[in-house]
Write a structure and sequence with these properties.
Elements: H1 4-12, H2 16-19, H3 23-37, E1 46-50, H4 58-63, E2 67-72, H5 75-84, E3 90-94, E4 110-113, H6 124-137, E5 143-146, E6 161-166, E7 171-175
Amino acid sequence: MQSVRDHYASHLAPIYAWMCGGVEAALTRGEAELDALGLVPHATHGAVDLGAGFGMHAIPLARRGFEVLAIDNSRELLRELRTLAAGLQVRIIDDDFLKFPAHLTGAPEVILCMGDTLPHLSDEQTVESLFAQAAAAIIPGGYFVLSFRDYTIPLEAERRFIAVKSDSDRILTCFLEYE
């Protein structure tokens, strides 16, 4: 079985922006999600985007005035983020996002882990460790924002196929296997 990093390098990274409906549509959706949360800088202006990818949330955070630590281990997606974030307060780190505390320069007021990032973690203990690290790092009254799909109830038969995205040239589906 491929590691998450290998899966992104060989399969997902080259089509990730397409999969999200294009960069501009993804940035617009990221902005709308931040609007719904009411996230604006207040205290330290520090924000961390775990699994930042090409910047769907990191760029809108920076445009709002946050100083963003964007961490991911997909070199291709981070290369795209570097281009998109030119001139913005985004510090880009190529590393496992679980190691984010080592890259902090101060206590953030916001930590995001959105999209399908959490399901890539290997086990419940790793998720709990991430939560503990976030709680220790964030300022009192700060926000730790998570989003994920609930896969706790195994899908069966044809419901295990998830249509992700399609256009006139290709179709991307996901097939879930439960161990």
